[in-house]
Amino acid sequence: MPFEWFVALRYLRDAKGQTALILAAVSVGVSVIVFLSALINGLQVSLIDKTLGSQPHITLQVQREAARPLVDPSNDLAVARSVQPAPQRLRSIDQWPLVMADAERTAGVVAASAAIVGAGFAVRAEAKNAIVVRGVDPERFLAIIDVRKRMRAGRFDVAGGDAVIGVVLANELGVGVGDKIRITTTEGIDDVVAITGVFSLGNEAVDKTWVITSLRRAQTLYALPGGATSIELKVADVFAAEAVAGELRGRTGLKADSWMKINAELLTGLSAQSSSKSMIQFFVVLAVALGIASVLIVSVVQKSREIGILRAVGTPRGRVLRIFLIQGAVLGLLGSFVGSALGALLSKLFEGLVRGPDGAPKFPVQLDLELFVLATALAVGVGLLAAVLPARRASRLDPALAIRNG
């Protein structure tokens, strides 16, 4: 065993009480970091999944139509204008297959799907409900929003004249799988569709209005042969959605809205959660660092005579310095192992305490290798930094004074 390691471990073993105390402090600190990080990360993932589970990350659409002047001013004519917003109509994206192919090639985009989204009414006997018709390419659409996993009854099949509808809409219309409803669109076109499935995306507004059918059927319903009113995208990093949207906005000239823009309040809440996690981690790390530093400083004072003897027999300052740095690193490493295990155990116990009606935990936690590696690196780094001051003090002790006064 190298000399520095032998002496460092000997010092830790001789001061069993101090070593146990600082190991307990580091372990508790690391367990708090692991527990809170797992809890906050789990809540964020769950919140994002519930919010983005019913919407694409980015939506490309045609720009809104601007108001046009009815009369232009001239040298002999002054016009007092009253500018009114132009009425908006459902329009197809020009050459949308090329636009979609271009969007798919954009860095960060993992899936793209063309759609026609329009308003209308669903009629069944005396019931008449306002709806949102979504005409989609099934395979591409499922890569954006996996409705297939959220089916409450039937199956996801929108081929031909079939459609799937939200569970709230199905209850209000009093229909189920195999029944038929009449759809009337804003273009004055109506048609009858058969219901092949009922889904629940966990969003009441969606479950109450969505009717998903094929893209071809929607093109007929809205008199847009071969058209698509929007291109929906999914990105690998949800927090990079606005950056990707900005790039596509500049390149295509289309209106590009990301979930970060549409759900600004959600983004603010997620940012606040991340900030609170960082603040808690900072104060925990500070407390652990002060604990390690204080114990090692006491150790330097107690071991002054031994350190003086080491210096007197020719031990270089660098070796003395490394002895205390090794102690800090060892305390941080051992504390991180114990703390990570304790934090993971607490996280799993807390996750199982409260469950919803469906059996899913109300407070999900997210434990991954990255979190444990980060906690270990943080603890070892804090241990080394906290040991710097005691180590410098030990290496600068005057051998004669240390032996005489020790």
UniProtKB/TrEMBL annotation:
The compartments listed are: Cell membrane
Q: What is its main location?
A: membrane
Keyword Cell membrane annotated: yes
Q: Which terms are listed as keywords in the entry?
A: Cell membrane, Membrane, Transmembrane, Transmembrane helix
InterPro entries listed in its UniProt record: ABC3_permease_C, Lipoprotein-release_system, MacB_PCD
Query: What is the protein's membrane topology class?
Result: Multi-pass membrane protein
Would you identify the family this protein belongs to, as annotated? Answer: Belongs to the ABC-4 integral membrane protein family. LolC/E subfamily.
Specify the protein name: ABC transporter permease
The uppermost taxa in this organism's lineage are: Bacteria, Pseudomonadati, Myxococcota, Polyangia, Polyangiales
